[in-house]
Amino acid sequence: MSLTDRTIFITGSGGVLGSTYVRRMLAEGARVVATDLPGHRAEALQAAHEGNANFRFYTLDVGEEAQVEEIFQRVITDGWEPNVVLNNAAITGEMLMGAGKSFPDFCDTTVADFERTLHTNLTGAFMIARQMDRDIVGRYPATLINVASMYALNGAHHPIYDGMPFKNFSAYGVSKAGIHGLTVWLAGYWAPRKATVNTIAPGAVFNGHSDEFQRRVGELIMAGRMAKPDEIADAMLFLCSAQAGYITGQLLNVDGGFSAW
Ligand SMILES: NC(=O)c1ccc[n+]([C@@H]2O[C@H](COP(=O)([O-])OP(=O)(O)OC[C@H]3O[C@@H](n4cnc5c(N)ncnc54)[C@H](O)[C@@H]3O)[C@@H](O)[C@H]2O)c1
Description:
By secondary structure, this protein is α/β, with parallel strands linked by helices. The chain has one domain (7-260): NAD(P)-binding Rossmann-like Domain (Rossmann fold), CATH 3.40.50.720. The protein is 41% helix and 14% strand. It contains 8 helices and 7 strands, in the order βαβαβαβααβαβααβ. It has helices spanning 16-27, 40-49, 65-77, 93-98, 111-135, 170-190, 211-218, 229-240, and strands at 7-10, 31-36, 55-59, 84-87, 142-147, 195-202, 251-254. The two termini are 30 Å apart. 42% of the residues are buried. The site of nicotinamide-adenine-dinucleotide has 29 residues, from helix 1, helix 4 and helix 5. This is SDR family NAD(P)-dependent oxidoreductase. Pfam families: adh_short_C2 (PF13561). It is an enzyme of class 1 (oxidoreductase). One of its GO terms (molecular function) is oxidoreductase activity.
C-alpha cells in the first residue's frame, strides 16, 4: 500500500505500537511527523530513524494545552503539513508497569488517578482534534484516526488479571469508550469540510507477557493468541491511506475476533 501522498502526524510515537507504525509508514513512503514525551522512548525512536529525510520528531505532551495549541503551526511552518493525524498517545498499563507501579484496585482508585488517565487519553485526544480543526480541517482533505482498545466497547475480563503484576484500570476503558464518542461526534461535524475520522481498536498486543497471561487472554480471542504489533499496523496503514477515503465515523476492531464472540 503506497503512502507516498501522506504526511502522518502521530502522538505517543515511541511506544510499542507507535514505533511499529512509524517504521511501517516510512517503509511505505510516507512522511512521518513523530511526537512523544521526552525520554528513552523518544530517544530510541529518533536514533532508529536518524538521517531519514521523511522522518521528523517533535517533543509533545498531549496533556499540555499550550503545547498542543502551537504544535501544528510549528509543524506547518517547518514544511511538514500533515494530512493524517493519529491520536495514539495514552497512559497504558505498560507505561505504569515500566515505572514499577501498577494500577490501583477500583475501591482504592483516587479521583486524581482516574482523571490523570482521562486527561491524557481523552482530553489530550480532544485537544489534538480541536487544534486540527483550527489549523488543518477545511484547508485541504485530512483524516484523523483515534486509537481505542478492545476494552473500549467491551468490558475487561477481570479474572485473567488475577495474580498478574498488572491489572486492567477502570479509567483506561472509560477513556477508550470516550475516544470513539469523539470519533462519531466529529465525523458528521467535519464531513462538509472533507475531513474523515475513524477509530481503530487494537486487541491484546504481545509485548513480553508471561506464558500464563498469554494462555488466559488467548482463550478469549477467536484467533487463540495475542496480536503482533505489525498486525495492528497493517490495519492502521490502511486507515491512513487514500484507499480508506470513503470511510468515516467507523470503529475497526483488530482483535483476532475478541469482540465478535
Ligand atoms: N498494546 C496493546 O495491547 C494495546 C491494545 C489496545 C489499544 N492500545 C492503544 O494503542 C496505543 C499505543 O499503545 P502502545 O501499546 O504502543 O503503548 P505504550 O505504552 O507502549 O506507548 C504509549 C506512548 O504514549 C506516550 N504518552 C503517554 N503519555 C503521553 C502524553 N501525555 N503526551 C504524549 N505522549 C504520551 C508514551 O510516552 C508512549 O510512547 C495507545 O492508545 C493504547 O491505549 C494498545
